Each structure stands twice: as C-alpha cells, then as structure tokens.
Amino acid sequence: MSQDIIAPDRKERREERRRERREERRAPRAGRGGRAWRVAPSALVAALLLLLAGSAVLSVSIGQVDVPVRESARVLLDGLTGIGGPGDPMFVDVIWNIRLPRVLLAAVVGGGLALCGTVMQATLQNPLADPFVLGISSGASLGAAFAILTGFGAAGTVGAVAGLGVPFWAFIGALAAAALVLGVGSAGSRTSPVKLILAGTAVNALCGAASSALVYFADSAEGVRSVTFWSMGSLASAEWASLPAVSTVVLIATAFFLFRSRVLNALLMGDEAAVTLGIDPGLHRRIHLVLAAVVTGMLVATCGIIGFVGLIVPHVVRSVIGPDHRGLLPVAVLSGALFLIWADVAARVAVPNAELPIGIVTSVLGAPLFLHMLIRKEYGFGDK
After folding, report:
1. Distance (Å, whole) CA 327 – CA 321
2. Which residues contact 90 (CB under 8 A, 6 or more apart)?
3. pLDDT in tens, 175-208
4. pTM of the predicted structure, to 2 decimals
C-alpha cells in the first residue's frame, strides 16, 4: 500500500523537475513569445555600430541645407583624423558646429533613454515601465516651467547656477520627483513594484497639475510658448559644450548595468526567484531606480521630454534576442541611439523651413509600432 502512495508522488516530482528544466532552457532564448530562435547579440552589436557610423555621415548631410554625402564624409574624416584635407568652409561650419553635435547628442540621449527603459522594465517587472514611470518627466517639466515663467532661469539670477539656467531647474525637479516617489514607495511595508508605479502615477498627476497652474497664471506669452516647446523635446540647442557631462553619465550607467546583468535577469523573474538566488530585491530596486532617475533627469534637462524611446526600443530588441540582459542591454542602447538619430532627422526635414519637436516624431513613430506588437499574439514580456 505504501508503495502505491509513494510512487505517484515521486512521479509528480519528476514531472515537475522536467517542467522546470524545460522552462530554464527556454527562458534565455525566449524571443517572440518563447520561440526558440534568437539573433546573436555580438553580431547585432557589430551591425549596429556600422549602422551608427553610416547614419552619422548620412544624417549630417540631411537638413534644410543639403550637403553631398561625399563632402560630409570628407569633413568628418578631416576633423577626426586630419586625413583628406579641409572641405568647403560653408559645409564645414554646418556639419562640424551645428549638425555633428546634434547627431552625437541624439545618439547619447537615445541610448540613455533605452538603457533606463530596459532597466526599469526588469526592475519593476512591468512591460509598460519606461524612464518616466516614476514621475521624472513631470518633475522636470515642473522645474523647467518654474524657471522659465518666474525668471529664475534667466542669466544673472540666482537660479542660473554656473550658467545652467533652465536645465539646472529641470534636473532638480526630476530628482525631487524621483525622490518623492521612492520615499512614498518605501513607506510602511517593504518596497514593491506596484507601490512604486502607483506612487509614480500620483506624482505625475501632482507635478502635471502644478505645471498647468503655472502656465495658467503666467502673464508671459513667450514664456508659455517656451514651456510648451520644451515639454515636447528638442535637440536644437545641442552644442559641443553640452556633450561631455551627459555622455559621461550615460557611459558610466551603461557600464554599471552591464556588470549587473545577472541581477537584472533575477529581478525580471520575480522577487521570489531573486531571493532564492541570494539577491535582495528591495535594495537592488532602489539602487537601480535612483541611478535611472539621475540619468533620465540629466537627459530631460538637456533636451526636454522625449517619449516612447525608453518604452518601445527595449520591447523591439527583446522580441529579437530574448530577455537575457547580457545581450539585451548593449543592443538596446545602440538601437535607441540609432532610432533617435533618424527621429531627429525626420524632425528637421518634415516641415519646410521649420522644425518639429522631436517628442512628436518619436510618438508618431513609436505608437503604431507598439500597438502592432501588442496585437501580435505571439509576443510576450520576458519569457512569458
């Protein structure tokens, strides 16, 4: 009798172990809803680097003033290596002083937003998480609106710290919003993804209401237009002086998260799996979100609010190579850089003799693609 009772129990345990092994084998390569196909990350990284180099040459050639691609390549080669000789002085000024800093800033901002989106989706275990889910965008918008409409961002005022002006206040607003969300999300019981997302929703609404109140009571039509344009995002103010700080922050954050791919993989599987692997989800979640908030605050302060990059790029990359962050992170960063370079080109040429805010372009390009991915039944988040 005892053997009859024990045998089914052993059989159930064996079946459960087989199912677990099948899930473990499938998880690292789950691309489109668990399909066992993937593109090698190293091959994608090499291809994306080549595409970025080619995109840089092509994008500096496109604009209100067209520059021959050969002339662009000659100017870039001469400026970077001294080979090839100087080009036409007019083209040199357009490419080297106006368009190249803008292209490089687009690459840095796009890569940084994609990095933060990838990290936050894994950390919060939420496929809709992006760099602005913690209210960072609305906090930065409130800081910028305050600086513009009250004059604290003007040159010569106390607010124009070290000449930073509006970006300084936008960065402070972004960090204050992120700190408020983390404080509310950590209050009471342990920090959880759901609490942080709900806190971010509340802070978004609060900062949005405060920004709207500032705009409503403002008596400066020019200030209102500046706030509106800034809140839609723009790379028009790109210059060489603005690149070192933001590039350094993004590079350090990318290196940091690349070394923490194992932690991100564990968090993506859920808190119970992370604890089983000896990882404290609450501690690592706070570390990741603080650093993501710093990076996003720096990016928003530099070029305004640019949506959909941190949301759509990680999903597209994950559907191609799977959820393993050892390959997902570098490919997502390079894909975000490539996406924003061409989104900026579209913003420059879509309207003759004018420029669209880049936030409009990223939304127009990103929303249909995201809807298409949602409609596809075979796509899932992570290995689900």
Report:
1. 7
2. none
3. 899 889 888 887 766 677 888 888 888 998 999 8
4. 0.83
Cα-based angle 244, 116, 129 (whole degrees, multiple of 5): 155
Nearby residues of 245 by Cβ (< 8 Å), 6 or more positions away: 298
Q: Show the tokens assigned to 215.
A: 């705009």
Q: Is 70 exceeded by the pLDDT of residue 269? A: yes
In whole numbers, what is the pLDDT of the chain averaged over residues?
81
Contact between 325 and 261 under an 8 Å Cβ cutoff? The reply is: yes
What residues contact residue 200 under an 8 Å CB cut-off, 6+ apart?
A: 133, 134, 135, 181
DSSP state of 241: G
d(CA 210, CA 193): 26
What does the chain come to in residues? 384
Residue 98's nearest CA partner among 53, 68, 49, 62 is 62
How many Cα atoms are found within 13 Å in the side-chain-facing hemisphere of 103? 23
Token reading at 351: 């309207």
- Scanning the structure block, which residue is given the tokens 């913003």? 347
CA 197/CA 121 separation, integer angstroms: 11
Q: Which of 149, 182, 354, 152 is nearest to 282 (CA)?
A: 182
pLDDT digits (tens, 9 = 90+) for 64-91: 888 888 888 888 887 777 676 666 777 8
d(CA 108, CA 338): 10
- Structure token digits, residue 265: 């993989």
Percent of the chain with pLDDT over 90: 27
Band the pLDDT of 54: cuts 50, 70, 90: very high
Q: How far is CA 381 from CA 31, 108, 128, 270, in A?
A: 9, 26, 10, 13
Angle between helices 193-217 and 166-186 (to 10 degrees): 140
User: In this structure, what DSSP letter does residue 36 have?
Assistant: B
DSSP, collapsed to helix, strand or coil, labels residue 17 as helix
